[in-house]
Amino acid sequence: MLDNLLMGFGAALTPANLIWCFVGVLAGTIIGLLPGLGSTTGVAVLLPLTLSFEPLTALIMLAGIYYGAQYGGTITSVLISTPGEAASVVTAIDGYQMARKGRAGAALSIAAIGSFVAAIISLVLLVAMAPPFAALAINFGPPENLAVMVLGLATIVSFSGGARLRGLAMATLGMLLATVGVDAATGVPRYTFDDVNLLSGLPFVQVMIGLFAVGEVLYQIREGAAKPIHARFRDLMITRSELSRSKGAIARGSVIGYLLGCLPGAGSTLASFLAYGVEKRVSRNRAEFGHGAIEGVAAPESANNAAANANFVPTLALGIPGGATTAVLLGAFLMYGIQPGPLLFEEQPELVWGLLASFFVGNVMLLILNLPLAPLFAQMLRIPYGYMYPLILLTSFVGAYSIDNNMFSVWVVFVFGLVGYFMKRFDLPMAPLVLGLVLGPLFEKALAQTSAMGDGDLTILFTRPIALVVLALAVLLLAGPALIKPFKKERITV
């Protein structure tokens, strides 16, 4: 194993590969900054430029775009509450609140540190446990995926805070919105109103841009122009106390991200939501969540970066893409005449280990690139909001239009901007709605497949050991605090 890793670093550290790795992470960061573009589109657009490269060099650059975009999406989430990537949506909840308190530099710094640590942890796990995890992942069928979705739904309780009924109502609304489009089981259109644009469902990124970016701008206009934030430069730096608070969140987020990233189709968005929900459950500072808790930035950022790396486990070991971006990368493998699968580690060791080693190199570059720049990015908040609002609206609508090149995306952003405004005005929690939208299609697909496997009998779930373990975790997540409460009272009494 060590020999293979040394061979990989030897291949990744050549001058050409280092240069293109840097180009990849820089391009990824810029792509992540642009709302709606995202890593999948970025990799697909830049893929033709790599056709004349050596396969390893091309894959290193494309992978750099992938995890670079994860961090780029965080910058706009924190500064202007506009997620550049779907996986950065949950970061906007506490990251933006930190920015409003003059702690944007600390939020961006912990995102960079958390992403780096998560990348290292996931790389170690990837190197040491890729084959066994791949073997475990191949045993994940529809019942196991359904159990994972139930676990994800269990975190809705965490997102709701004290307003559980409102949280459940918003989650239900999110899942109902997710039913728009063609029924995956029967092929029958639902709630499309004969509009061809709705056949593929409501576009997730456009909905998020509307809810978070446009909704926030409309709300701030109603409240009156917010004052620019004039934090001192030293106040933008992360403190030792914040680093200490984030250690556990980064570790837990990394493990959750890695485990979910190994599952084909789970993706880094679900990992970031689940990590946030778990952190809100276990953190000593849970009352600060939603109001600028640094753990609320550290956990999802660690999870989405770990998941991005772990997505390569099923892609490399099984030839099954872990998510949308790795599906495009899988196409790149095939373009270069490389067949991912169980034999890839034996037939192309230099390419596989060189690519894995480049993850470490690329994340070091991201840390060096972004950590010193975090306080500088935060200086954007000194600009009066009167100048920022038109820029945010322009970026949101142009970004939405650029996704599909049609006006439908723009109308979706506008409508959900109004929805976001009213949700803020009436204090309705936004995170459960987003989680419902994320989980809805995945839950429905797994439910339909599981039902088909059991001829309509869902008790098949209880005959599968892995599904049972995951369901037990979901029950623990829901009932754990209530079970622990009497013991806490007893300890206080003593």
TrEMBL record:
Keywords: Membrane, Transmembrane, Transmembrane helix
DUF112 domain residues: 18-435
Transmembrane segments: 12-34, 46-69, 108-134, 146-163, 168-186, 198-219, 316-339, 351-371, 383-401, 407-423, 430-448, 460-484
Keyword Transmembrane set for record: yes
PANTHER family in UniProt: TRICARBOXYLIC TRANSPORT PROTEIN (PTHR35342)
Protein name: Tricarboxylic transport membrane protein
Origin species: Nonomuraea africana
Organism lineage: Bacteria, Bacillati, Actinomycetota, Actinomycetes, Streptosporangiales
